[in-house]
Specification:
The chain is an alpha+beta fold and about 35 residues long. It contains two helices and two strands. It has one domain.
Length: about 35
């Protein structure tokens, strides 16, 4: 499953790492990346 985590801070990074570890395709978006979009 593809998952977008909006906010790559402490909680977003932890959740994203867990989801990636169990096999999901994870995209983390933080403030710096948001300005590029």
């Amino acid at each position: 499953m593809r998952v977008l985590v909006w906010g790559a801070g402490a909680m977003g990074g932890t959740i994203g790492a867990y989801l990636a570890r169990v096999g999901h395709d994870v995209i983390l978006v933080d403030q710096a990346r948001l300005t590029e979009l």
